[in-house]
């Protein structure tokens, strides 16, 4: 096996200029494919950087800001809005969020000690579904649930920075904090949230608790997490579901449509380049087949000699096949290199981050090898069919 | 009972009633009724004009072609019943070819050309280069090992080809017009090398149209119109 490889390598290396010309078609073809796919991926990457998943699936509903002016009754979000929205197809999670007016109440970890070391932290409230809706991740402990909400339990979840400022980092001993004079048990600490960064600096309590303690009338906003691609649909349906009588009084925040942008990138031009690449590959394969066939004719003497030295037909076939695979592989490698450079170059010029699939980068040279294999089959068969007598008589 | 054994060396080549017909039309019988025995250590020349069938005989002897009829045993192995793959192995192992036009690979060094003849007969890679060096020393070319064949003279090229034929330790050295492309000085050198190989015990069969070349052999066989004449 190594012998076949050695002999084939020597055969290929014997004519360097021809080798380069032979690989040209494959180089162009693979370069066109890698460049087109690479640039497509890079451009698509720019889009998804702008619209990452969290943003692309987030819909927020709030009352219109000019609510309650000129004698109109202020629109309030109903408490059962999460139930109503949860029934819509495409809504994965939904929850309410409200900022509480706590007056002068400060938040501290120990009541009245150290002469009131309280911190002026934001206090917010939410429904049990809020955490799921904003893709909250816990650092420790748990979220409050619907039961806490209904009973109005005096429990809170702390945002990441709020916990740091209060010096609380564990909840297994059920630490208490004080808001004003009231004690609340900390049951969880957040690590991150995808929307609503202000929750990081807040103390969050269940709506039920907030209604009792701070007389909360209605939710400030509703956070909806939709299925991928459903954001536009839900944005249209949500106001009617929440407030069928007067949906126009609700303001909906939804991500912009992506389709238009993506279409611009994956234009017909792409298909054209891919087609060109495929044609170049075909031509490259034919080129390899042609040159290998020519080389078989030129090397008839060599074939005869090898047969005289004990080579069987399969040895001759294997050598020419391996030679054309090497040529194809080389073309694939060069083409991939050119395609990658092209992608990086265009990305650099356009100030993009080049993105290239590993599978593409490592698979393309193999594509060249496969083309070499296919192109070499006929010449290899032809070479192996040459009779040693004919071969030795010729030269 | 004691038999006085006349210790005849074992035959390397045994041809009995060999014929080769090239299918027509017109059908041509290039070789007919050839009986030929070459014993170990013999130096035989087969001489004949062009068209006499000596090339066909060479191809048959070298297992490059199949007889249409008859029996051909090489080293006692009946070659008629062998499959193509086995014939290739036998050819590589038992026969060393020397051609008129040398057939050296232009892009490989002299050493690599000689080592090539061990690639297909299963000599381990490590051994090949060492054995190729020894063979080149034997033909007096140790100073040319890393040269390309194109830089050598015709005589030197033929000596490389002889080294290549010898290195796999064949039972029979088969030479086809070995001096045909050489001037008289180089031709003489090659013939001296053959004499030397003969003295060393090698079995040689030289096919030529040149009487001067065939005279050097121990035994001469003439081929006319496809039949051997003694």
Number of separate helices of chain A = 15
Terminal CA distance of chain B: 36 Å
The fraction of residues in strands of chain B falls at 25-35%
CATH topology of chain B: Rossmann fold
Sheet-strand content of chain A, in percent, reads 15-25%
CATH superfamily of chain B: P-loop containing nucleotide triphosphate hydrolases
Structural class of chain B: alpha/beta
- Going by helix content, strand content and strand pairing, the class of chain A is alpha+beta
What spatial order of strands do you see in the largest sheet of chain B? 6-7-8-3-9-10
Query: What is the arithmetic mean of pLDDT of chain A?
Result: 84
Helix content of chain B: 25-40%
**How is the biggest beta sheet of chain B arranged?**
6 strands, mixed
Count of domain modules of chain B: 1
Top CATH class of chain B? Alpha Beta
Structurally, the number of domains of chain A stands at 2
Question: Using only CA atoms, what is the Rg of chain A?
Answer: 35 Å
Largest interface: A-B, 26 and 30 residues
Low-pLDDT residue spans of chain A: none
